[in-house]
Amino acid sequence: MKKIKKQKEHPATVEEETKKSEEKEKKETIPVVAHHEKAAPFHLDLSSVQQRPILLIGSIGILGIFFAWVGLSWMAKSAKEDLATLAPEAEATGATNEAVAAEVVPKEVPRAIDGVMVAPEEQTPVIVGVMIENLYDRAVRPQSGLSSARIVIETLVEGRITRFYALFLGTETSSAKEIGPVRSARPYYVDIAKEYQAVFDHAGGSPEGMAEIKKLGVRDMAALAGAAVYHWRDRSKSAPHNLYTSSEKLSAFVRDKYGSEHSVFQAWKYAQPSALESRPQTAHFVHVNYSSSVYNPWFDYNRETNAYVRTHAGTAFVDKNNNEPIAVENVIVQFVPKEGYYPSGKGRLSINVAGEGRAIIARDGKVISATWKRKTLDDRTVYTDAAGKEVEFIPGKTWVVVVPGDREVIVEPPLEPAAPAL
After folding, report:
1. What is the pLDDT of residue 55?
2. pLDDT at 177
3. What's the pLDDT at 98?
């Protein structure tokens, strides 16, 4: 069989190829030319094949801009419609959130110093602690203002007598018309002031007491120096047993010196008191043997008021401001190591109120064994029961009796379980 030779094709002439290209390009560019027929600068010269890519790129660019404009217009319209749809929902959600927030914010909170319910802005007022004398003398007793104090700390000073450090609200102006007699500082009372971030009101002090104020940076209210204007002398009594202040003057000092500052510290836990029918029928008391009967505090439980009335030597311990017996909701007996003595002499005591030890706590008609712990002087003293749970106190006033060494404390009825060992 013969192979048939394929006839070799001859290329078209340049004129023919150019003519064919012009006809093809003319067909392809008619819409574009028509679109721009009034814009002379955009006239395209199709006389050469090399112009085809430029024309195509231009066409694609114009179409891209057009479709981009259409897309953006559509997106803007959709966004506007979405916003119109979501606006009422957002308003409703905002209103709901505001309502929830209004419900969550409490109208009252427990005040840090005593657990009493107050407005949130009154939770941490500046606390002012006043050194108050307890000498067994007609010029001193009855003292003024102790029934208005939120917490009173009692312990020994030299001469086997006791002295009080009474904590008041620096925002009250009328709770105590008179507070005193104001006496001098001792270092362990300054250490107690530190845990409450309290202002320390005092009439001078021992060398160690004055040094401790500076060392710890405690807010100082020096009655014999810069704060003298916030005190007065009762001229019917002899000095140094006649220096007094008041709630009004304490609050004025806080306002003038510290403005809107607060006393911020760890609050104790609090629980509501038992109903009357749940309170114990049998009487009970706590008695501390400091030295002599006129300095040994007794606390007798009153079932009706669910409070502990302080007495000494069989006599009610009253407030001169109202001539009423002083009563508190909580009594704490805190055992600390045996006292030492400072080298400055005059029998001045050294008492350590940081660390840990055993305690006895009376509240809500019950007396329990407990343990106290205070890691550093910056910390608050915390009390836990025999099971290791933090003690819950009754909202109201508290009296803390700090007992150095192994002095006798009598509780009736006897404690169960026995107080934990140190």
Report:
1. 41
2. 97
3. 56
Query: What dihedral angle (degrees, nearest 10) is formed by the CA atoms of 363, 366, 372, 378?
Result: -10
Report d(CA 80, CA 88) in Å as an integer.
14
The pair of structure tokens assigned to 151 is 């917490």
pLDDT at 149: 98
- Residues in the chain with pLDDT values less than 70: 1-103, 416-422
421 vs 167: CA distance, rounded Å: 30
Which residues are CB-neighbours of 180 under 8 A, at least 6 positions away? 130, 132, 133, 143, 144, 145, 243, 244, 245
CA-to-CA separations, 82 to 75, 88, 90, 96, in angstroms, rounded: 10, 11, 12, 21
State residue 33 phi and psi, 5-degree precision. -65, -40
Q: Please, what is the angle between helix 207-216 and helix 187-195, to 10°?
A: 20
Pick from 113, 146, 202, 159: which is nearest to 326 by CA? 146
Q: What is the pLDDT of residue 73?
A: 55
List, in sequence order, every residue forming a beta bridge with 358; answer none if it has no partner. 371
> What is the rounded distance in angstroms from the CA atom of residue 186 to the CA atom of residue 210?
8
Pairwise CA distance, residues 66 & 83, whole Å: 26
Q: Could you give the CA distance from residue 22 to residue 386 in angstroms, rounded to a whole number? A: 107
SS3 for 161-218 is CEEEEEEEECCCCCCCCCEECECCECHHHHHHHHHCCCEEEECCECHHHHHHHHHHCC
What is the C-alpha to C-alpha distance for residues 162 and 294, in angstroms, rounded to an integer?
Answer: 10
Q: How far apart are CA 141 and CA 130, in angstroms?
A: 16
Token couple for 418 = 């026995």
